[in-house]
Automatic annotation (TrEMBL):
Name of this protein: Cephalosporin-C deacetylase
Gene Ontology molecular functions: carboxylic ester hydrolase activity; serine-type endopeptidase activity
Pfam families: AXE1 (PF05448)
PANTHER family documented for this protein: CEPHALOSPORIN-C DEACETYLASE
Length: 338
């Protein structure tokens, strides 16, 4: 795939005006307040996976509407004291799969919580175990157009709420240091991580790779790949719903929620990415933290000749020392809190 978006020099100057609803903060405050009226219902059960250097737990907790969300918790078998933690979110269409596939952060010394994504898990990977118990109006196959009629009904309102509750769940564990929690994800997982960064004020770090769901209006205009093509195909049928569609999506846009973030960010972009166009990732990066008073530290790793795989293992190799540094910097604060 050749370059198809703006040249790199223009991308580095790119700062688009991304529409944001006036009631965005109130919308999400109401949403999370309602979610917290439900008991967290945290359940943690050990699982024998055959792995000897880590311990694995099957976790469930109450997400949006009090509905059960599953996750894998993986921790080093030999540990002392409360651990810093990483909450990880998955890519589009995948589920939590098997715990044997989520070992990197535990191997690096962290408690690792990998959240299942409601309703997903049947497009690739090893499956998921969390149904989406809420319905929606007419939608194109996939998840992006579910509930486009109203922001209150949109699929990602539920998912982002689940993701915030996942952070609350990991912080409720005795083996986790609640003052040292980071979030991570790629593609859809990167979007979810950006959203959580804007909704949870005291994270240690955010790792959002080739994030999906940023600057929807531009993405739909310049790429015809899924998931963005779901919106195009939906509007090709529902010709009178464009204004409402983009209004609804503005409530879950990673640019708008990421503006509110306060935690340091390590992100990545691939300049030949046809799934999450580079300009949309730059939009999220440039706007990240700009509503936080003081803009947090942020770094964007650029992979010039890669498609949506981004940096792959090279990005993980970049993440680990960055994560160690940020967790170490937060350690005195954590000690003071305790």
């Amino acid at each position: 795939m050749a370059l198809f978006d703006l040249p790199r020099a223009e991308l580095e100057r790119y700062l688009p005006d991304v529409a944001e609803p006036a009631d965005l903060d109130a919308f999400w405050a109401r949403t999370l307040q309602e979610a917290r009226t439900h008991d967290l219902a945290l359940r943690v059960e050990p699982v024998d996976t055959g792995l000897r250097l880590v311990e694995v737990f099957d976790v469930s907790f109450a997400g949006f509407g009090g509905q059960p969300i599953k996750a894998w918790l993986t921790v080093p078998a030999h540990r002392s004291g409360p651990l810093p933690a990483v909450v990880e979110y998955n890519g589009y269409g995948g589920g939590r799969g098997l715990p044997q596939g989520h070992l990197a952060f535990a191997a690096a010394g962290y408690a690792s919580l990998f959240m299942d994504t409601r309703g997903q898990g049947s497009q690739w990977g090893d499956g998921g175990g969390t149904p989406d118990l809420a319905g929606s109006g007419p939608a194109h196959p996939g998840f992006l157009t579910r509930g486009l009629e109203r922001p209150e009904d949109h699929y990602y309102r539920r998912v982002f709420t689940d993701a915030v509750r996942a952070v609350e769940a990991v912080r409720a564990l005795d083996l986790v240091d609640p003052a040292r929690v980071a979030v991570a994800g790629a593609s859809q997982g990167g979007l979810i991580a950006l959203a959580v960064a804007g909704l949870v004020p005291d994270l240690v770090g955010v790792m959002a790779d080739v994030p999906f769901g940023c600057h929807f209006a531009r993405a739909v205009e310049i790429t015809d790949t899924t998931p963005y093509a779901e919106v195009t195909k939906y509007l090709a049928v529902h010709r009178d719903r464009a204004e409402q569609t983009f209004r609804t999506l503005s409530y879950v846009d990673g640019v708008n929620l990421g503006r509110r973030a306060t935690a340091p960010l390590l992100s990545s972009v691939a300049l030949m990415d046809t799934i999450c166009p580079p300009s949309t990732v730059y939009a999220a990066f440039k706007h990240y933290g700009t509503r936080a008073g003081t803009t947090p530290d942020k770094t964007l790793e650029v992979y010039e000749f890669n498609n949506h795989e981004g940096g792959g293992g090279h990005q993980l190799a970049r993440q680990l020392p960055w994560l160690h540094q940020n967790m170490a910097a937060a350690a005195p604060v954590a000690e003071a809190i305790r």
